[in-house]
Amino acid sequence: MRHSWGRFLTLAVVGALAMSLVSCAVNPPTPTLTATTAATARPATRTPRVPTVTPELVVTEVLEGIHLTDITVMQPDIPSGEMVVLPTVADDAYTYDGNIITFNVSIGSDSDITFPLRIEVTDSTNNAVLASADVAASNTNQNSATVMWDTLDTSWTADGTVGGVRTIVVSLLDEANETLDSANFALTVRPRPVVLIQGWSSTDGMWSNYVTYLADAADGWVGLPADNLSTGAPGQPFHDAKWNADKLNEFITAQREELDAQHLDLVGHSMGGLIGRAYLQAYGAQDADGQPVVLRLLTLGTPNQGSPCGNVGAVLSVFSSKLDGAWHFTPAYMNDFNRTVTDTHGTTIHALAGTNVWTCGITGDGVVPVGSATAYGTDNRVASFTAHIPGVELWELVFGARDFEYSQTQFNDFTLPKLRAPWSETAPLALIAQAASSESDAPPVTQRFTLTIPAASIAVMTVSAFDGEDLGVMIAPVAGVTAELRAPDGTVIASLDEEDMETLPVGVLPYEDAPAGRYTVHFTNNSPITVTMEMAVFESGLSYVLDIEVVQQADGTTLVSAALFQNGAPVTNAVLTAHLELTEGDVGTSLHPLTDEEAGSSTANDGVYSTVLDLPAGVYALAVKAQTSDYSVTESHTFTVNPPSGD
């Protein structure tokens, strides 16, 4: 019997031990936390919290009492660089694409054991990890971490749609990537602000449509027309691209400070693209993040190599202040400009050019040749339906676009895709100076007129087409007036309406392959006042050719010469006069006869007419008029007189 009890006790002990082992396997005891066990990955016993859209900080106590206590989202102040809290709209925080923002995170812990943890910032829309940082936490340490996120190229999604309001999740993770705590808040990364730069003889008001296009494309996308420039619009003086670049820098500086935007983009129409280039040359710089302040410059019909229309306009500019500054768009002037304006400081340039439109004798957008508009830039676009200025009614009937600033088609097809595309650091660091091709040579001016038209009346001016190819009439616009170019049989070839006259820097009435004959320009003055019209008639392919050359001599004088040929033979019986104007200041125009005699380096009776002038330093606009018994030919030129060496 004792033997049976002993066997029973033995079995009972064995059974108890077995039950104990099973119990331990199912419910392990909580270990004492030490530095060693704290560094060991914990079993996955906690279910991660599901992020919510609640902007309030949510605290969840977990095993060791580790939790988030505070999160502050900040960005650099412009220009101090000090970190400031993100601005909000309706309690939703926002920043601008390209800003570097920081998440300053504080962590609470009830343990005196230091735990290795990680802060992770994710976008709940696609669960993409935006940024992360390692941190160690205990109740004896300063438990904080700063996570930095560069928002460059995050305002648009991969499929080209705007990102909008997104829920950002800041999570506190342990070594096993278990979520200990998290907080959510709403954030919008707005597209970079776009500074809009108007062209010659225009104002910031021309961009009203573009501002709307930007705002409609993305909430919070701001278009900023530069309102402190002076490009020769009615009632304001003309200043060149470099002068306006200084003003543009003031505008950009003020806007960056107002918006706290580290980066922005530029869009320049016509001369506005040259102002943008001059700005990059003088003020292009990197922000504190090492990237260019201006990431992109989009140019719309910019005369990077000048325009033959600029030469025609320069003739009028010398004789009339109504087209003041036109000489800035001559190939000769732009050759000098391109020798000194070469550095983009890393900014990417994209160009839009118009084509299939008669452009003072060659293919372009009506004012700027294709090759000139696309001389600088990457991934340029040539749009066959884009006109720089209207003037032929067929353009509007067929293409429905009057000008770059009016066309939403061009915004949707060119501007929007370029601005929302990911930015690349592969932009060229320097532009190679390029000279205009010979095809950009301007057709000579054959006639120039000044016409006074009484209020509410009609006037007709007769012009002649000689033995050339294309005929054009360039007009300095006057509000309230319309103009029509009519063929000898009375057919209307081209027209400018009142809107053209009120908004365009220059009006052109073109006629391709114009036969010789007498044409008329019909003006209707619908305004209540008397107006004065300035116009120039030009013709390509003439038998007469006038070539101008200006050379600064070793003694400081300037040799001005002009060679006149007809069908390749020198013309020796013409009367040539140089009309010279210093481009800065109200100096006025001076007249200088050119003679076919030995003067400077010319030889008598060789068809080369010249004069030697003693001119002060400066930039000059020159128009040389050659008059024969049956022709009048005027060409323009710009040149610089340098101060004597040592000054």
Number of H/I helices: 11
At the fold tier of CATH, the topology name of the largest domain is Rossmann fold
> How many structural domains?
4
Which band does the percent of strand residues land in?
35-45%
Report on this model:
The protein is α+β, with helices and mostly antiparallel strands and 647 residues long. Helices cover 19% and strands 35% of the residues. It contains 11 helices and 34 strands. The strands form 8 sheets. Strands 3-4-10-9-6-7 form a 6-stranded mixed beta sheet, with no helix packed on it. Helix 4 (241-259) packs across helix 5. It is elongated, with a radius of gyration of 36 Å. 43% of the residues are buried.
